[in-house]
Amino acid sequence: MPFKKPVQKYSASINTVELGTGDKKIAIGGESVLPFYTFDGEIANAPKVGIEISDLGMAEELPGLRAYYDGAESVADIAKKAASMEGVDFVCLKFAGADPNGENKPVEDCVAVAKEVAEAIDLPLVIEGCKNAEKDAALFEKVADALQGKNVLFLSAKEENYKAVGAAVGLAYGQKVGGESSVDINLAKQLNVLVTQLGVSSQNIVMNLGTAAAGYGFEYVVSTMDRVKAAALAQNDAMLQMPIIAPIASDCWGVKEAVVSEEEVPEWGPVDERGICMEITTAVSCLASGANAVILKHPESVKTVSRLIKELI
Amino acid sequence: MALKGLDIFKLTPKTNCKDCGNPTCMAFAMKVAQGAIEITKCPHLSEDVLNQLAESTAPPMKVIKVQAGDVEYSLGGETVLARHEKTFVNKDLFAVNISDDMDDAAVADVLDDSLKIDYDRIGERMYVEFVSVTYTHTNIDRMKELAQKAAQVGRGVIINCDCPKASKEILELIKDAKPILNGANAENYEAMSAVASEYNVVLGVTGANLDELYETVGKIEALGNKNLILDVGSGSIKAAFENAVQIRRAALLNNDRTFGYPSLVNAAALANGDVHMQTALASLFTTKYGSIVILQKMSYAQALALYGLRQNIYTDPQKPMKVEPGIYPLNKADENSVCCITVDFALTYFVVSGELERSGVPCNMFICDAGGYSVLTAWAAGKFSASTIAKFISEHDIESKVKNRTLILPGKVAVLKGEVEEKLPGWNIVVGPNEAVQLVKFMKSYQ
């Protein structure tokens, strides 16, 4: 009796969302099969890898990472370097400096930085806020205005600020809205419903289902992604068919394994290497569970994850 | 073909004696049909009926026992394709690889660092479970020497060898270690299976493609050997991933028992020397359907990430991960440092301890037995209350161990403040922030 291959191909599919413009624009989503199951059906758009940079520059980063950006003075220079690294499909500019509990940079300054970065690179741009709902809403509105026509994705609209962010980013300025929920399929769906009810087309929404680093409650991330993909494909749930993005850099570089210095725990070895492994492990597992894009910080992890994607697709 | 619950029910004694641990024979039959319980759990079935049922009611994916030093591990036995459907049961194991073309320095380079990794993460020992020894047909004497060396380090042994004669000679030397013999293929399966059976060890089978592997497994099963593990191959990453998925799906979706075996992934061979790619592959196959993953070597950096991932993936969704209740001094805290209390849900522990460490303020973190629930859930279930906190303080003899009398409560259970003050006279009860991220700022006042 010959081997009979099981097939899990679905009639429903994940929405295709385009980011950026021109030659370097990318598309995520579009598939009707489980992650990397090319043997079940075509995956037209391979998952994409983004590199995260901060409006605060490289001052706070580890020396190993800083070395990659040697000579880059302004955030725009850093963005240019980031965009030239192997495997980078898009650049994510994070406004860590906008945080009211941190440097609390005024919105106008952030807009200026966003404009400089957008002009410096031709790769698609993702804007990440400072996690403060109120500040992000104000910031995103101005940045979305300033970057009209660039087809930028904003991370993220949350339960607390989806109205302001959705209306400005999605409706007024025609950019892409990232909806962030906290590792729960029902919350993710509810947010998608709310944002679409504002009038934002479901084709312009990307989901951030909430993230964690491997080892830190990451099982919830995996299972939420598994369940969202199952609902989107097997049950044709239109409110869960948005592609998934997983910005995992800050989770990975914030856990003990990637923070504690080599002096404190000599047997663990260099801290850079631990962070890289944490990023690779978390990113690959996210991709295998359904993420259509991941955002990492270290050029070495970006390169590896991107190579693995090429091998699998 | 799988039997339906009703078919099985007809063969039970229908006495509802509960000897199998189920309330009724019907319930038992249903569970057997789902593969959740083995038919042999019913002590009242005749030999005939058992034989008739054993084959068709066996779980779709076999449990294969492997020896790793003093520890016996189970591989396979999975019943679902995604962990949320029920749970994954038998975690994947890791191996590092040495081969007969390596000199002593190269072997030491692999083994010294890899075997040093040995630590505890939430009650689970994290270490490299296997040493894999690959025969490259360079030097059989060297191969034998390394196999013996591997057998002596107290971990499990995997022998990658496709020559039946060499395999027999190696196994004779290290038979007590019960190694996995990986190397059967379409050409040599008969002789390899004979060696594996003679020494009663697990046999690894591979094929040029899925069809060939399927046919070879079928032939080995026909020889009476069902103690197998399936090597997903090292031709390409894409093929290896497809094979791992297809093997698992065939077993669980199609109930195809020929592929109802655990899988072995040689990430070292697939990644061609690229260490980071091996980490990526190990993550991929830990998430989906690898049972043993062979790496070139293991560093602490890899281990910390991969074992964390594995522990999460193999956590039973119905049983929250718990940490041991007790006093956890952070940032070099002593008996005079401020005290904080929270629940024993592992995620809460990680997030809260991480933020407290980040604050740099020495503090004594108390982990209270709250059934492994999060703060609000435990509070709602009555498992995190003024009484349980007072009980914790007395049971762990806190008042004689710690001199500081300030106790910070999680902000989400601010309502408990008054009651805790009543139960713990002499303590200054402070309500902390709602979210862990606010702790860094909050703790500054206790510097």
Describe the structure in your own words.
The complex is a heterodimer of chains A (313) and B (447). With 313 residues, chain A is α/β, with parallel strands linked by helices. Chain A has a single domain, classed as Dihydropteroate synthase-like (TIM Barrel, Alpha-Beta Barrel). Chain A contains 11 helices and 10 strands. Chain A has an 8-stranded parallel beta sheet with strand order 8-7-6-5-4-3-10-9. In chain A, strands 1-2 form a two-stranded antiparallel ribbon. In chain A, strand 4, helix 3 and strand 5 (125-128) form a beta-alpha-beta unit. Chain B is an alpha/beta fold and 447 residues long. Chain B folds into 3 domains: 5-57, Electron transport complex subunit B, putative Fe-S cluster (3-methyladenine DNA Glycosylase II, Chain A, domain 3, Orthogonal Bundle); 63-313, Dihydropteroate synthase-like (TIM Barrel); 326-446, Rossmann fold. Chain B is 41% helix and 18% strand. Chain B is built from 18 helices and 17 strands. In chain B, strands 3-6-7-8-9-10-11-12 form an 8-stranded parallel beta barrel, surrounded by 7 helices. Chain B has a 5-stranded mixed beta sheet with strand order 13-15-14-16-17, sandwiched between helices. In chain B, strands 1-2 form a two-stranded antiparallel sheet. In chain B, helix 1 crosses helix 2, helix 11 packs parallel to helix 12 (300-313) and helix 15 runs parallel beside helix 17. The longest helix of chain B is centred in the middle third of the chain and has 16 residues, at 237-252. Chain B is globular and about 75 Å long. The relative contact order of chain B is 0.08. The model of chain B has no long low-confidence stretch (mean pLDDT 92). At the A-B interface, helix 7, helix 10 and helix 11 of A face helix 8, helix 9, helix 11, helix 12 and helix 13 of B.
